[in-house]
Amino acid sequence: MISVEFTNLSSIGPDALQKLPNLQELHLSSNQLRSLPGSLFRDLPALRVLDLTNNLLEDLPPEIMDSHSPLQHLVLNGNRLGALEPAWFQTLRELEWLDVSNNRLQALPPNCFQNLSSLKSLDLSHNHLDRLAPELLAGLPSLERLNLEGNQLHSIVEHTFDLVPHLQYLFLQQNNLSSLPAQLFGKLGQLAFLDLSNNTLTSLAPCFSEQNLTLELDLSGNPWACDCAMLAFMQWAAGRSVGLYSLQHTLCGTPENLKGRTVAAAAKDALVTSCSADRRAPEPRQPPSGPRFPSGAWLAQVAAPSFKWAACQLDVVRAAGTPSFNSPPATSPQAPMAS
Fold first, then answer.
1. Which Gene3D superfamilies match (predicted)?
2. Is residue 268, in this structure, part of any structural domain at all?
3. 31 FRET partner, CA 20 to 30 A, in 40, 109, 182, 248?
């Protein structure tokens, strides 16, 4: 391993890394690098970790690694990248971790990640993305964690996530999302945690796969419409033993008489009283034995259902076996994607 960090390094010669055939980790973070020679990393046949965090990079040389690169972790967090070029990644077939958070990305080419068949974690958080191409995630069959926190997304095209069926952790908090397509999460049979906090959502009617037996959600910081549809969703969540985080910050935005109340409290009394009693649904299923959810996340105390959430009928093929990557984040579901 070579570590040259916090040294104010502003340039590096094309031959600086010659004759290092056994180098596996290279850390050049927290320097002043504005550019990199095109051949800098070409003769590092054993390099698996490249950390360029917190430099001044606005661009990278095309095909930054050679065609036989075993690189597994590439960290570009905290630079000045305004765009990503597909050529940067086309030879990185063993890459498992890509972090391009805290840059200046405004749009991504549809085929940007098409050759990253081994990628498990993709961090695009804290950029300026306002939309995602529907085919952006094509070519990422192994993706398990996707972080889009802190962008400017105002909508997401239906079926965008159908291309990553093994996704387990999805971070969409702190965007400008006001609504979501009904089928957006329907094919994510291994989804374990979804963060939708701090958007402008007023209702939530998307379908979740029947395979999501331990789903956890953070819906806080949105101006929810506390109506019969929301009651139905809360009752659905209780029946499925869905874990809800930050209930004390999951508040009603409308109607006026419920504004500021927690959605959970409204679902226990006011909404049960006001919603039509002639549209009754079956009692919710009992929670599975031995679930592990955060203390206070249960909604089992929600009143007996008088409405049924309009759950979609999904044709989902059940995957054999268990997910290959099912450990939770180190501290909490909102922990950073990269350490």
1. Ribonuclease Inhibitor
2. yes
3. 109
Distance of CA 188 to the CA centre of its chain: 12
CA 206 to CA 164: how far, in whole Å?
A: 17
> Letter for the amino acid at 85?
E
Within a domain: residue 322? Answer: no
CA triple 327-332-334, angle to 5 deg = 105
In total, the chain counts a number of residues equal to 339
Distance CA 337, CA 329 (A): 8
What DSSP designation does 277 have? Answer: T
Note the pLDDT tens digit of each residue in 213-246.
789 999 999 999 999 999 989 988 888 878 999 9
Domain membership of residue 336 (yes or no) is no
- CB contact at 8 A, 257 and 263: no
Sequence-distant (6+) residues with CB within 8 A of 112 are 84, 85, 86, 89, 136
Domain residues for the domain of 238 are: 153-316
Verdict on whether the full-model pTM lies above 0.90: no
Question: Where a domain ends, among 99, 121, 148?
Answer: 148
Q: How far apart are CA 19 and CA 86, in angstroms?
A: 28
Asked if residue 339 belongs to a domain, the reply is no
